[in-house]
Model the fold of this input.
Amino acid sequence: MDLIPLFGSYLPVLRLVFHTTIPASHGAQLLHPPGKIGRWPVMVFSHGLGGTKNAYSHLTGSLASHGMVVVAPEHRDGSAPISFVHSTNGSPQESVNYRALPHKPSPETDENRNKQLQIRLWELGLIHEALLKLDSSPTQLHNVLASTSQDSDRLGMFASALDVHTPGKISWSGHSFGAATVIQFIKSVYYHESRPSNGYTLLYRPSLHSSLVSQVTPSTPIALLDLWTGPLLSSPTSYLWSKPLPAYNSRDGSPPLAILSEAFFKWTTNLRETKRAISSPVGQNAALDAKPHIFYPNSSAHLSQSDFGPLFPWATRKIFKAEDPERTLRLNVRAILESLRRSGIKVADTSALDMELESSDTPGLEQRKGNQTIQLAQDHKILATDGSIKGWIAIPLNDSNGFANANGHATEAKHPTDAIVQGEVMKD
Done:
């Protein structure tokens, strides 16, 4: 949600960010994919309000370390604190400043939020085009990296290395407004031939000849972190809200994964709409029998799915009452990876250390890392609903008496956009 007003109160602490580095290497060489997978799987990750391309480096880096290429764009819709459009072909550099919009719905707010969403959808479409060029002919790409020939040559390592041509193989994920962006994008592409009734605002429609149309299928993996449903519920875009995710149109669909923070779990109105967003329509027979996966980690905050927790663990505990931010991120990564495996995406096994297992509990798989031997095992328990993982709570989908709050008591549900959200403050 909107993190900028909240961050202003803690500006002296947050100045430490300017002295924080990400353990990454500029221009690192891409490894050749193992023969058993042929090409590296690809995920596109969309950030939330107040986020940036770097704000989720712990999560995206952990996913990439399991053998996939994760693309984390910085949206230029005014949702990042500030974003820069670099100069190209003689045009000057431009900056896109943060644009604060009210969370309470109104025709003006809906119109402006839809403008942001429209930019985000267009950008995801451009990213898909760029991925195809990156894999097939990197020389087609311009204004990428620096302007030196050495940097341009580095793009060649992606040629024929990315699994971006097989339908349904690109994964899509996002946090908060980014999760809403992913849902709107997937539905806009999948239902591109639908003709909505009058009054509907078309935010994005791919070309009929675009390979994106064949890329998004019922098997497309989707992972949604703290989905903010408000941007999906405005009257001009409600036409797509009423349609199910593509997974429910095929027996071979990939059930979506939704991971909430405890803070968003307690936001009961948004929880109700999140369940609707990831489930098959009520009263309709879906082709897919499998149910969506929906969980939350105990003592977690909205910022727990970003780098904020590991960077500022004291502030996370003091301000948001969130505990063990690194474990929360590990649980998120484990669930996403296992969901990808079940969707047919070939990623590496989760280590026994991340699974909090003793080596004797593993099936004997091992991997060498330097001078160490790391035990590996498939992470089936992370998507189980039996409560076998401490602090990892499965959320029931069929609570017909209202949705339970964190204490197990049912609460009255309202429209989610009736909630006023500023940072972590969410009151029904």
